[in-house]
Amino acid sequence: MRYIRFPLSLRNVEDLLHERGVDVRHETVRFWWHRFGPMFASEIRKRRIEGMKSSRWRWHLDEIFVKINGETHYLWWAVDHEGEVLESFVTKTRDKKSALKFLRKAMRKHGQPEAIVTDRLRSYGAALREIDVGARQETGRWANNRAENSHLPFRRRERAMLRFRRMRSLQKFAAVHASVSNHFNQERSLSRRLLFKASRAAALAERRGLLAA
User: Fold this and answer.
1) Given phi > 0 = left and psi -120 to 50 = alpha, else beta, which region is 205?
2) Which domains does the chain have, with CATH numbers?
3) Maximum Cα interatomic distance, the chain, rounded to a whole number of Å
4) Which backbone phi and psi does 164 adopt, to 5 degrees?
5) Pairing of strands 115-118, 137-139
6) Whether this model's pTM surpasses 0.85
7) Cβ neighbours, 10 Å, residue 91
8) Which of 14, 92, 104, 129 has its CA at a distance of 20 to 30 angstroms from the CA of residue 205?
9) CA 178 to chain CA mean position, Å
């Protein structure tokens, strides 16, 4: 969980565990996250989706350029009005077909939002018209800052991991990282210190419950 949550390399986690008297190799840490990370992320995602009716209000969509073995890929990204990452989807292209797959995948899980904020990429408009929600699209120079800012934790992790080598590993890590980030996203800049501490303690207690289950 520390490897997923914090911008640490596998060897960083190995050293931290060594200080605590746990002698494991970094490849063991890699096996742990591949084996258990998706399980924990799935449970976190299931619990949050059940209580996220407000996510249908306003979505912010964007795409991230990611290099895999020197080739550019695109990580499509959807967040709600509170910065919760709703969906991520990796493709080799940035056209209407890819945008349509991404939107249908997100709406299948979360329903249709009342408003969809995007940049001026024409693929979004074509895909939204295809599913008859083109009138809900909003664009603007600064309107999509919510999505832009949500990329930062992922970019920090990408640098720590020295990039990705396969589309499959990128898709898997992006999904797991988004769920864990959502779980600990307390919007500390918008909360009083006491409220932030209480929310953080509740998130840690829920995480310990998931790990013990």
Assistant:
1) alpha
2) 1-213 (3.30.420.10)
3) 58
4) -115, 160
5) parallel
6) no
7) 18
8) 14
9) 3
Residues 6+ apart with CB under 8 A from 114: 56, 57, 58, 136
Report, in angstroms and rounded to the nearest whole number, the Rg of the chain calculated over CA atoms. Answer: 18
Whether the Cβ atoms of residue 33 and residue 6 lie closer than 8 Å to each other: no
pLDDT of res. 186: 67
Report CA dihedral (125, 55, 37, 159) to the nearest 10 degrees: 50
Confidence of residue 59 (pLDDT cuts 50, 70, 90): very high
Exposure string over 166-179, b if 16+ CB within 10 A, otherwise e: ebeebbbbbbbbbb
- For 35, the enclosing helix (H) or strand (E) is helix 26-50
Tens digit of each residue's pLDDT (9 = 90 or more) over 164-188: 888 888 888 888 888 888 777 766 6
The pLDDT-based confidence of 55 (bands split at 50, 70, 90) is low
- Residue 138's DSSP bridge partners are 117
DSSP state of 53: G
Other beta carbons within 10 angstroms of residue 56's beta carbon come to 15
CB-CB contact of 131 with 104 (8 Å): yes
∠ CA 189-192-198, rounded to 5°: 105
